[in-house]
């Protein structure tokens, strides 16, 4: 949905535009331990379509469907990248990754390590700074700043994960004057570039390793 502030700046009315939620399914490959136990795939993507079959008599249709061989970049370009440019034009965008434990949520969002091609967060950071650089070079904008917040939503509680663990307390989420959900006490770190963003997240994970497994599946950037 377009933010009210963006509509005002562009001379548009403040009416709400309805946009369909896009649903994508990604099937992860079998893990080594599963292969050793002779497990087999029960969910398969129909080639050239956005449909998947289950066992194999049940058929489901989505906006996007990715099989075990799909790359991180393929998933990002099809599902996320179109929203990033809209984001820089003042529109709101949300990516929600849902699945049971071990289904690949963290891998899709955060990647699998230093040698991996990176998850959605890495790709978004790269494109945000790349697009801003284009706007600055073309004099479309004069200055740009990027801030990042990191919060956890778990058991109806909201915590600021960029704050020290000893200082973390429940946040009071409410609407601002434009009707956008916000919390004015939430930490917001200014980022210099995409590498700075990665350093912030990795430092937090290293400093709070005992919380990593508890919070990583409920984090919101």
What attributes characterize this protein structure?
221 residues; alpha+beta; Kinesin; 3 domains; 33% helix; globular; disordered N terminus
Describe this structure in words.
- This protein is α+β, with helices and mostly antiparallel strands and 221 residues long.
- The chain folds into three domains: 48 residues, no CATH class; 91 residues, Kinesin motor domain (Kinesin, 3-Layer(aba) Sandwich), CATH 3.40.850; 38 residues, no CATH class.
- The protein is 33% helix and 17% strand.
- The chain has eight helices and twelve strands.
- The strands form five sheets. Strands 2-3-4 form a three-stranded antiparallel beta sheet, with no helix packed on it. A three-stranded antiparallel beta sheet has the order 8-7-12, with no helix packed on it.
- A hairpin with a 2-residue loop joins strand 7 and strand 8.
- Helix 7 packs across helix 8.
- The longest helix is centred in the middle third of the chain and has 18 residues.
- The N terminus is likely disordered.
